[in-house]
Amino acid sequence: MKHLSCILPLLLSVALMVGCAGEFQSTGAGSGATSDSVTSNDSPSVSAPDTTAQDAIERANAQAASDASNAAAQASFIAGMAAAQETMNNANNQAPSN
């Protein structure tokens, strides 16, 4: 009985690994990289132009626009906080002293 308690976790681990391996095989996970890298010696057909540089420029422009928008919002917030602080300072200066 003592040996069974030592072997049981090992058997459960093996069953779990086999089950997971079967799931990966049935879903085809990980097999996409090998099929994409296969090339043939046939002459390639005309394909769309490479737009990776243009895509990178568009992403950089979108990020710059987002950064500018965030900077404007932050500046507006800081200006509002400064105005609120000034209002509080003026109210404290005009309050009668005890």
- On the 0 to 100 scale, the average pLDDT is 74
H/E topology pattern: HHH
The value of Rg in angstroms is 33 Å
Main sheet overview: none
Number of strands: 0
Give the count of helical stretches: 3
Shape: flat
Give the class from helix and strand content and strand pairing: mainly alpha
State the separation between the terminal residues, measured CA to CA. Answer: 87 Å
How helix-rich are the residues, as a percent range?
A: over 70%
* Percentage beta strand: under 5%
Poorly predicted segments: none
Describe this structure in words.
The protein has 98 residues and is mostly helical. The chain has a domain at 53-98. Helix content is 76%, strand content 0%. The protein has helices at residues 2-27, 32-36, 52-94. The N and C termini lie far apart (87 Å).
Record the SSE blueprint.
Layout: H1 2-27, H2 32-36, H3 52-94
Summarize the structure.
The protein has helices at residues 2-27, 32-36, 52-94. With 98 residues, the protein is an all-alpha fold. It has a domain at 53-98.
List keywords for this structure.
98 residues, mainly alpha, 3 helices, 76% helix, 0% strand, flat
